[in-house]
Amino acid sequence: MRAYKVGDVVFVRLGWGAPCEVTITAIGRRWVTFDGDEGRFDKDTGELDGGKKGWSPGAVYASRAEWEAEQVWSALQDAIRGRPAPPEGVTAGAIEQAMALLGLVKSPSE
Q: SS3 of 56, please?
């Protein structure tokens, strides 16, 4: 769980679009309210309260870079899912290096 403060800038993805920068204006026991359309999100889960505005699904990110990393990770998962074998010419060693770079396994030299 991230500790939010009034005045913090976060990135909120409303629905399925790209995130927009907002400033936190209030923090309650459960909800963190932000400027703009006076939206709010759950401070424990980061899930947006779409309410009557229809923003769900939505999410909160600490930065645009965090959102971009999630998008690229998802694209990588989609690209790999369903492939019966590695691309031609890609060795087991190269795959192990990629996995180590991503923190999925220890590096081959360890």
A: coil
Sheet order of strands, 20-27 included: 40-42, 31-34, 20-27, 9-13, 59-61
Residue 83 dihedral angles phi and psi, to the nearest 5°: -80, 125
Widest Cα–Cα separation across the chain: 55
The pTM for the full model equals 0.67
Answer whether 6's CB lies under 8 Å from 27's CB: yes
Residue pLDDT, tens place only, 28-79: 999 999 987 668 888 888 888 866 666 566 788 888 899 899 889 999 999 8
How is residue 28 written in tokens?
């309650």
* Residues forming a β-bridge with 61: 11
